[in-house]
Amino acid sequence: METQIKFETADQGEETARADLYGLLATLLYVPPSKDLLLVLSSAETNGEGVLGEAWTHFIETARKSEAELVRDEYEQLFVGTGKPEVLLYGSYYLSGFLMEKPLAALRTDLQNLGLERAEHIVESEDHIASLCEVMRYLIASDDILQANLATQKQFFATHMQSWVGTMCDAIITHPQATFYASLAQLAKIFFDVEMQSFDME
Description:
Blueprint: H1 14-30, H2 35-42, H3 50-64, H4 68-80, H5 91-96, H6 102-113, H7 129-141, H8 150-160, H9 165-173, H10 180-201
């Protein structure tokens, strides 16, 4: 599952905006942003409304003040480190307390049923938050109506993300060394909350 960032025009609808935000989260949580990506983010519009719009504005303002090298250092300190990372980004850890456990096996089964598999060059396991966000992006943006439908999105999110992504975001937000990623995690948490509310309304 490759992560990539794409920006679309605002008139392409809410579903495109959802897919784009999942894609952005996948990109930034898999690897730290390059200088060019930070420049792209810095030029993004900040005229959104509501709590999600406010979180987006704050994130973009943070990106405008960020330097790629410092953000890379922050990413490595938070999510890589030596030994156990400061903050883990894997669903199995939050669901079972351990990495590479039963939740990952269940996820792999569901991905296989969706016809999805991890690309060879992706080193992280499928329960990494970046991979899960990329799956959600695919389920929203794909032209395959048998897979890219609201019911499938709801089931995948509820099964593999809903119970733990807020805890993960809080761990990032409250980490004393997090700045860029605290802002991103705040955006992610609010976005995930909006997703949950939207799914519940369906």
